[in-house]
Here is the input.
Amino acid sequence: MDTKEIEIAPGRRSMVTEVWPVGDMQQAAVSASIAYRNLPGGTVLFTNPSNMNRAGYCPQRNDSRFKRGRLQIAAGALWRRMEGIHATAVPTGSR
Here is the structure.
């Protein structure tokens, strides 16, 4: 599942440190990555996927302007629904 692309801090970069999957799925079967770019129309790159930890989030570290989340569930895993993500982020790059 991919989310819509967003700009967390309009006109600025932001740092995402945690991606919290929202839904009813097994902890070990979920991984998350972030698609990102810094310029409008720029090349979209992806972070390496990280598995959900015991706290319930997928650790990430990405500082960019435009982002979208990607959740993956392992084949054969038991799950009921996937609703989206909650990301922990802060604005960066202020002058």
